């Protein structure tokens, strides 16, 4: 059985790298100026334990600021409609995303989003659903939402579920065949669980290269999100959309960086689009 699956994936990879360019079809170059800002959260906690956490207090303030300043939170389908059909995004709009699927999103983020009728996309790691990371000397315990909670979220029209791979392994640790399994199988698992298409993918640690962009495209994701702005690498912009990293720093100095990043998304320096950044004037 394993040899049969391996053969299937090898055929898929061969097709991926040698037929995509056979007919000379190159998509027109696009940049992030075509898209509306995208926020990337991880866990929401009463008290932060890591740079990527956002406190419940800061999260509520950020949502309130969006509402007070007339921002529309787009559903994933609305975002896709604009991105694929080259429509203009609403002038004040934003896509809210969460990576990894920590339990704080279900306990704290979801109620606040529902209270304000705001949309969000949750990128979950298939093999970590219902598990927990034990605490160590640096951080507190982190646990993950369950499969049942994912299913519940998927049934709410405010929310969408995306893939963050099977295991969240670092790309350099896996072969191309193993990465194909991570991308394809996580998509299928989410679709089997929710009964809905899994349209979006988030690259672990936000990293991508030419091979990974081709792979995510071949897996039939409609959109893929990164963190860092590493360029288009001969693919459409919709497969490497950079996101604003929503960590502790976004709540500091009266949300100075949060406000600036939203209002200046299309001209932000590349150093803002990075994992666990610490940058503030």
- The CATH architecture comes to Alpha-Beta Barrel
Number of strands: 12
The largest sheet, given as strand count, sense and whether it forms a barrel, is:
6 strands, parallel
CATH class annotation:
Alpha Beta
Q: Rounded to an integer, what's the Rg over CA atoms?
A: 18 Å
Question: What assembly state would you assign to the polypeptide chains in this entry?
Answer: single chain
CATH fold field value = TIM Barrel
Describe the global form. Answer: globular
Order of helices and strands: HEEEHEHEHEEEHEHEHEEH
What's the overall average pLDDT, rounded? 86
Beta-strand residue percentage: 5-15%
What is the share of helical residues?
Answer: 25-40%
Q: What structural class should be given to the helix and strand makeup? A: alpha/beta
Q: What are the segments in which pLDDT stays under 50 over at least 5 consecutive residues?
A: 1-30, 277-281
């Amino acid at each position: 059985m394993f040899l049969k699956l391996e053969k299937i994936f090898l055929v898929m990879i061969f097709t991926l790298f040698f037929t995509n360019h056979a007919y000379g079809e190159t998509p027109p170059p696009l940049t992030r100026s075509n898209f509306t800002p995208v926020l990337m959260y991880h866990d929401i906690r009463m008290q932060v334990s890591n740079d990527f956490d956002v406190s419940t207090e800061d999260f509520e303030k950020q949502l309130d600021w969006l509402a007070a300043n007339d921002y529309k939170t787009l559903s994933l389908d609305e975002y896709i409609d604009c991105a694929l059909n080259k429509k203009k995004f609403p002038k004040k709009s934003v896509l809210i995303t969460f990576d990894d699927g920590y339990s704080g999103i279900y306990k704290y983020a979801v109620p606040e989003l529902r209270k304000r009728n705001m949309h969000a996309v949750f990128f979950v790691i298939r093999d970590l659903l219902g598990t927990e990371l034990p605490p160590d000397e640096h951080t507190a315990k982190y646990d993950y939402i369950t499969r049942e909670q994912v299913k519940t979220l998927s049934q709410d029209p405010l929310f969408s579920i995306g893939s963050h791979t099977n295991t969240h392994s670092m790309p350099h640790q896996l072969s191309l065949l193993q990465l194909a399994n991570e991308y394809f199988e996580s998509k299928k698992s989410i679709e089997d669980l929710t009964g809905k298409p899994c349209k979006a993918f988030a690259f672990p640690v936000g990293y991508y290269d030419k091979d990974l962009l081709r792979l995510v495209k071949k897996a039939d994701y409609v959109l893929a999100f990164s963190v860092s702005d590493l360029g288009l690498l001969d693919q459409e912009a919709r497969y490497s959309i950079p996101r604003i990293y929503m960590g502790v720093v976004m709540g500091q100095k009266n949300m100075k960086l949060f406000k600036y990043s939203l209002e200046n998304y299309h001209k932000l320096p590349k150093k803002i689009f990075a994992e666990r950044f610490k940058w503030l004037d």
